[in-house]
Records
---
Amino acid sequence: MPLDKVLAVVPAFHPAWTDADPELIALCDREAAHGNFRAWAKITHHLTVGMKETGRACVDEELLRWAPEAEKARR
């Protein structure tokens, strides 16, 4: 998906992204998801687990950068 579509679809896809800063969504897309919805689903899963583990109420850049390392550790 192109970035404009990502910015429209991702916040509607999951409540974790509803109030996320569009710049954070763009960063995640640029560095990890690359417009791929399946990648967004995996990232969202890991972020929601991380939100529960860390007690965060929303996605932030620190959590976003933590998620790929956490995914590797869980394998």
Note: The CA atoms of residues 44 and 55 lie 16 Å apart.
---
Amino acid sequence: MSTVSGQAAPITTVHAAELLTATTVPASDAPGSTPEVAGSSPADAAAQHAADVPSRSVWVSRTIRVASVAAAIGLWQMLTVGDVRAGLRFDTLPTVTEIVAEFGEHLGTGQYYLDVAQSLIRIVTGFGLAAVVGVLAGIGLGRSRLLADVFGSLAELIRPIPAIALVPVAILLFPSDESGIVFITFTASLFPVLVSTRHATRALPTIWEDAIRTLGASRREVLTRVVVPGILPGVFSGLSVGMGVAWICLISAEMISGRLGIGYRTWQSYTIVDYPAVFVGMITIGVLGFLTSGIVELAGRRVTRWLPREVAS
């Protein structure tokens, strides 16, 4: 590498990638490995293998998934229609047809969509804040011994407290129920993101940072070109867990102190003994949780598409 006046040339992405790649042993150089064809790479081999996998296997997998859900629904209908009592009292639960009819009635009302929108606004606000704060705090605690000494013990003391147990604190602390519910959602999803990011930051190989520093990288370049890309898989693992926990605590908070939302409406249905409506709320919660978790997972796959992935055979 050429230098001017004794100073290292500015670092580039190409230089960093070449040096980081040089710190690993090529697969073809490992003892007992099979030499690769000239011009080929592991990524090319994986792509070729993926192209060879019949698309039929994908449809088989999807068919099995749909069939398993359909079988569960069919079993539910059979047990409830038959008023089965085999340890569990299925005769007290609504049938699938009753739930479907109730769902149709809900879809025809504006109140249902208002509740869904209110819950989504709360989950997006609380989870979004938790994602930003959790990632930044996780990187700070993972890289700074001072921050870890000052805030690490405090975080570990608060982390075991269930977020739903903070409802009385939220009621006293915030002037409105809406702010308190967002606070509960934020607290619930914060620690999975923070802990996962902290562990991912500490697990980064130090040789990566040392390699890029030899090219004259600044602290900012180390963060943006080594730390952030390196911790992305761990970050999205924490985000996925945090999304699920956020929904659990959001619904619980809405049941306790909400005025609108799926959780509040589900609890109200229970108090008036409208059990089909209760199951409508439960199904809605499950679908919304499934969709939002899928969005997080899809975003993670897109952002970390440079990672090698196993292809099912």
Note: The radius of gyration is 26 Å.
---
Amino acid sequence: MSRQITGISHLSLSVGNRDDSVAWYGELLGFQPVATLDCDDYLETICMDSNGTILAFQQHLEGGAAYHPSRHGLDHLAFSVNSTAALDEWATFLDEHGVTWSPVADTPFGKVLCFRDPDGLQLELFAMAGT
């Protein structure tokens, strides 16, 4: 079927400071810049991790309201990890980098560790049940 969705191509996040976000996501989550655009009304950097996941960071120059999860749009972004043991390793890594995180929580689908990016967007590291 030619209309079949084969995956998510990329995710673009509106951020308060593109360069700060690119540095933060690079240092903590391994996303590396692959392209940068400086346009009249926005700045964008496209980044990729070692698995080929693509995140774009757009700083709209006219400003705008700060992120809040109660607004329509993105509520949180969850990254998968390969085991619950990996969550413990991530917790140690986040501590070493001064990132506040919530205790690992059980959900009906697996275990999750939550933290926030520099703009306040909730990020999750998620280990599916049985891993």
Note: The radius of gyration is 16 Å.
